[in-house]
Here is the input.
Amino acid sequence: MNLEEQYDRIYKYLYFRLHDQHTAEDLTQETFLRFIGSRTYQDENRQLQYLYTIARNLCSQYYRDRMIVFNFDEALDIPQLEESEQSLLERISLTDALQKLSQEEREMLLLRYVNGVPVPVISRLYHISRFSVYRRLKRILKKVKVEMEGENG
Amino acid sequence: MDNDRIIKHLKEICRTPEPEEKKAFFQGLEERGLISRHPEAINHGDFLLRQFFYVGKWIWLLSAVLLLLITGICYGNTGNYPFALTPLLAVGILAETGRSFRWKMAELEYTARFSLRSVMLARMFLVGVVETAGLMLVVLVVRPWFSYSLIRVFLYMMVPYLAASLSGSVYERKTRSDNSWGSIIICFLSSGLFAAAPYFLSSLYEERFTVIWTVAFILLIFSLFVSVRRWICELEEPVWN
Here is the structure.
C-alpha cells in the first residue's frame, strides 16, 4: 500500500466529515501515526480497512469532544468552473440530494466513488456482506437520482 | 441522468484543498525511522523492459532458431511437418516461467521489490508475446508457399504451440519441478503427436476441419488462461509454509 497516496484519500475522507482543512490534516496525520505505530495494523490484506477505521474513530471522537453537528452542505464545494448552466444545475441538485441522505449513505458514496475504496474493504468497514454493499450503493444512487429528477421537475 | 454522470459530478463536488503538511509529515516520519520511503514507482512499460533483460538469452536464441527453421522447412515445401515444430517453441516460455522454482529463488523473490507473481507474469507475457509475434510473422512469410488460406496457416501454427504450452503449464504447476526435462519432453511429445497425426487422420489438414481447428484454438486459449490464472493464484501461498 502506498502511504502517500492513501494520505490524500484519508484527508479527503476526513475533510468531508469535518469541513476544516487544518483539523482534517491533523487527524489524517494522527491516523497515520497510529497506523504506523501499531503492529496489529500491519496485516497486508487489512491495511486499508484499518486506516479508514482509525480515521473514522478519530473523527467520531472529535465530534463527541466538541459536540459538533455536521453540516454536509458546507463541506461541499460547487466549483465555479466554466461550464454549462445545465451542468451547474445538476451539481446543485446533486448537493441538495446528498443532504437528504443519511451520514452512512453519504460516507459510502464518498468511499466507493470518490476515494475508490474497494468493495471488500467497505464491506469489512461496515460489517456487511459484499453483496449488501453493492445493493446499498445501487439503492443510494437510485435515491439520489430520484431526488435530483424530482427537483428538476 | 445516468449513474456515471452522477458519479462524475460527485467527484467534482468533492474536491478538497490540497493538504499543506503532507510532505513535511512524511519527511518527519522518515527521519524518525518510522517508515522507509518506497523506491520510485515505475510504470508497467519500464517494468516490462527491465524484465526483458532478465529473460535467459538462450530462450531468445532458441525461439529465433526455431522460427527460422520453421520458415526454412516451409520454404522447402515438406508438407505439414513445419506445423509440428511449433510446440518446441513452448520450451522457452515454460522454462522461463518455472525458473524461479528451478533455481530455488522463489522464496527470495517473494520478499523482493516486485512480487514473484508480477515477475512471472511479466516474463510469461514477454516470452509469449515475442513468440506469438514471431509465429505471426512466419505465418505471413510462409503463407504463399502453402495452398491454405491465411487463417488456416495461422491455426495450424498456433494450435500445436498452444497445446504444448497448456500441457506444459499444467505439468509445471502440478509438479513445480526443479528441472526443465518434464516440460521439454512434453513439448517434444506434442511435436511428435502433431507430426504423426496426419498418418492416423489423413484429412486433418483439409478445409472441412477448419471449424474444429478454430474451436480447438479458442478452447486452448481459454484453458491456458485458466491454467495460468490458477498457477498465479497458487503462487500467493508463501512457499515456506
